[in-house]
Amino acid sequence: MSIVPIRDLEPFQSGKKIQIRVCRKWRPKIFRLVDQFMGLHCIFVDAMGDAIEASVKEVDYDLVAPKIEDGCHYEITYFYTVKSKSSFQVVPHPAQIYLNTRTVFKKLLNVHSPIQRHRFYLQDFDSLSSRIDNDSILTDVLGHITAMQPLEEKIIADGRIEKKCEIYIENLRKKAMRVTLWGDIATSFNSNAFNELTSAKFVVFTSLKVKKYEDNTVLSSTISTMIFMNPDILELEQYKSMFNNPIDTIKMVPASTTQQIAPQQLKTTKRLSVGELNILDPDKCKDVTIISRATITRFDTHNGWWYKACPSCYKQLKTNLQTDQLVCPNPKHGVIDQIPIPWFKVGLILEDASDQTNAIIIGRSAEQLFKISCRELVVEKGFANQQEFPEAILRVKGQCKVFQFRFGNMKSNFNRSDLLIQGVFDDKVELLASSSELTELDAKMLTLAPSPLSKQVSPLDLIASPDTPPIKITSISKKRTRDDMTRAILSSIKKARRKLERSVFM
Ligand SMILES: [Zn+2]
């Protein structure tokens, strides 16, 4: 039997022989109430550099998986091919191989001219926009890691809590791209890859989904995503010569902290009146989430509406009057030589029947409220005058919203910590929660709307029945409410789950 090149394999064939190298193998896990594995998947590459996906069904996993070693060369017979998946294809090939317990693997030792170790189908960042929401084939990218956000937990709209990690990469032209990793892949990147980052700053992410978020193209992991730090590929040489500065360190982006409260929690969390907000002791509720419904009646115009933010931590940059340089208050960042990011910071006057109060809305939460990014207003539309509030901001006057607050760390002029707005909700979200139908957009809003404020605050921390004091939390009540919450959410938003798995995790 002669050896068939991978490129000549067609769907629905058997009785063929191939000589290949296993260049990738992974075990996809689907996100369900109980984790389920989906067998073993490999990428086989042959001497001509062509790749094909080969799979082992879960039922054969225990018997077949030990025969396949990553990176090794094999001669394989007694396999069959089928038509490759119509969506989420990992490598471009019309056929896919199935291996089972009858498959014969002859391991090839002392291979004279080894087959390439990796086979990626790397996409240029500029070509990614054509792949937005195109699920037929998944995307591989190579980049230089510039920043990452530590691992955090996100409440997904179906109530499940999922691990998430964001990595920022750039290409040779310094174009930036955000990659969001979910689940186990996020955990493993955080614990393994990042430890190696002092030496390895180049990364290939395979099998990503391309999406659009707030006018940006963003990437997110799928169950087939694998991460290769500093892979031995030709393309890396250019990156190495381009980014050869040894002191080029990876920036840590602050956690998105403000996990916005989930719709179901929003419903069950006791709401305070504006009058009650005024008499909260900030020192006693530093780490709790506070909910109140109020109308935006005025703006505090004394401090303008935006500031120049540090690209790494979003803190407000100060100008060194002697040198005219912009300096981040975080000594690790110091003098900023990159272009600062325009960042919203708007003072709102909020009122309800009981009283009025003032609160500050910053960054992503503000972008959510004003439905425009600060960058777009300042850079693209040219609004920069601090005294002149743009229409996008002014038009929220008179709007009644449900606000999620926390207290800031800095004492304001009135010797009282600022009330910061973490999240803004309108009646639509509440209705959605009760009708148990979440649209994909709302799911995205919940999962992808981080607000880069400072400290980690659990939104689960302030769920109290109407007659308990809102700020008193014991560990027992915390646990109980957390369990109740999980149950309530799981039973009420079941319908959204399947849709969400496809939209966020596939
Ligand atoms: Zn900074």
* Tally of individual helices: 12
Query: Mean pLDDT, nearest integer?
Result: 78
Radius of gyration: 26 Å
Strand content: 25-35%
| CATH architecture descriptor name of the largest domain | Beta Barrel
Give the low-pLDDT segments: 411-415, 429-506
Whole-number tally of structural domains:
3
* CATH class bucket of the largest domain: Mainly Beta
Strand order of the largest sheet: 7-8-5-4-1-6-9
Ends apart, CA distance between termini: 39 Å
- Looking at CATH, the homologous superfamily of the largest domain is Nucleic acid-binding proteins
Comma- or semicolon-separated keywords:
single chain, 506 residues, alpha+beta, OB fold (Dihydrolipoamide Acetyltransferase, E2P), 3 domains, 25 strands, binds zinc ion, NA-bd_OB-fold, RFA1B/D_OB_1st, Replication protein A 70 kDa DNA-binding subunit B/D first OB fold domain-containing protein
